[in-house]
Amino acid sequence: MMLLAMLETSAAVDLAREALIIAIVIAAPMLIVGMAAGLAIGLIQALTQIQDQTVSFVPKLLAMAAVLVACLPWLMTRMLEFTRRVFEDAGGL
């Protein structure tokens, strides 16, 4: 009985770890582009002394949306693989 509980706990921990890794991988492209765009826009704002919030928000939003559209097939493949693996493993528990 104790061994079964340990196996279930181990499976739950592995599933949670894998879910967090998949979430990081899925979010990384958009976050990296948002950070790079924010850095570039901040540098431009510092050089031109334009301190308007919308000047930094709109380009970052557009850059992140473009990356989302470009990476969407890859992101969906990763999410579907993870979901399929979760449902397949759930049948074995």
Please tell me about this protein's structure.
The protein has 93 residues and is mainly α. The chain has a domain at 52-83. It is built from 2 helices and no strands. Helix 1 packs antiparallel against helix 2 (53-92).
Q: In percent, how helical is the residue content? A: over 70%
Task: Give start-end ranges of low-pLDDT stretches.
Answer: none
Strand content: under 5%
Instruction: Supply the helix-strand structural class.
Output: mainly alpha
N→C terminal distance: 14 Å
GO biological process, one term: protein secretion
Organism: Neorhodopirellula pilleata
Family: Belongs to the FliQ/MopD/SpaQ family.
Membrane topology: Multi-pass membrane protein
Descriptors for this entry?
single chain; 93 residues; mainly alpha; 2 helices; elongated
Helices, strands, pairings?
Blueprint: H1 2-48, H2 53-92
Helix pairs in contact: 1-2
Compose a concise summary of this entry.
InterPro entries: Bac_export_3 (IPR002191). By secondary structure, this protein is mostly helical.
